[in-house]
Amino acid sequence: MYDLQKIRNDFPILGREVYGRPLVYFDNGATTQKPRSVVEAMTNEYLNVNANVHRGVHFLSQQATDLHEQARETVRRFINASSVSEVIFTRGTTESINLVASSFGQAFIKDGDEIIITAMEHHSNIVPWQLLQSRVEVKLRVCPVSDDGRLDLDALARLFTSRTRLVACTAVSNVLGTVNPIADIVRMAHAHDVPVLVDAAQSTPHMAVDVQSLDCDFLAFSGHKVYGPTGIGVLYGKERWLDRMPPYMGGGEMIGKVSFEHTTFNVLPYKFEAGTPDYVATTGLACALDYVSALGFDAIGSHERSLTAYARQQLSQIPGMRFFGPSDDAVISFLVGDIHHLDLGTLLDRLGIAVRTGHHCAEPLMHRLGIEGTVRASFALYNTFEEVDLFIAALQRVVAMF
Ligand code: C6P
Fold first, then answer.
1. pLDDT of 142-174, one tens digit each?
2. Count of CB atoms within 10 A of residue 373's CB?
């Protein structure tokens, strides 16, 4: 049974008001709210366990280390990696992709090579590759997006050349709600012996991920989008790649032996985890992953899909409604007539509705669509049909003002 009221009770923030109205939080694509269990696990660790990990022989340090490494095992199970050596803690999707761009780039990308991305990427899966261009002459080839917001897979197939070294692609568009056929893309790339990095920032909150069955080579996600704390994320990488990649940052944790003449590096995953990790956040992340796993993605996905379909159907009744993308997932991007997205978002906010407006860190996609930005409503496991009704009523009121 999907007990929405019980779920909502786990998220105290959902009970608050803004401007004297009940909060309707539809900005979950930006970040999700946190269940009490995540906050309490982190508070408990700070109040009762806190000590630096992997360093002390004392009781607290060992207990903190155990929690930290158990969290890694929870992540491993969540994504079905074959080993904890393949689970690297980072600050989030952005850092995970930068790590690959820098380290994979250094090891495997030479002048004249090519990387394939898509026209629906978030800036964090575009700019790291451009930064790499300052070190090596690598060409970015971009898979186009169709008018209905889908990747053109025939065009993608034509982008591969003997110089293609990597495909970096989002699993779900944060603007269009498109769910990309990642398994097909991995098969296509592997047929050319090209590895694939999956940006799973927008998919992990909504659907199960199995890196072994996907067979992707790298996968990145952020804790804060999947009901966990900010400042923690994950890079999954196949051991056979990670082993051959140089460290991303230098410092404590990532070393074997250090002298002024020569330093050796630690084993995986620590080779890529320089400095004190956010070991309290890893506990919170594990708790969040346990929370969604207990509900199950069948139940979460089915609730979110019916909510999204209902919202889209209701929105389509509003004169002048223009949708961007198919909203396969819990994301609806729209504009109404020629009303500016910022005006819509600001006025909706005054009525208690939190949505995101703007280019959503996907400016090249906005150029492709010929717009400056959209209003985006993005849903989570705790949102209700009543909230959708409040949103629609508020939007009707706002639109009537213009
Ligand atoms: N998108 C949004 O409102 P970080 O900031 O590292 O946690 O995640 C970056 C990121 C990478 N890829 C995709 C597909 C994303 O959607 C995001 C974050 C937020 O859409 C903030 S811009």
1. 999 999 999 999 999 999 999 999 999 999 999
2. 21
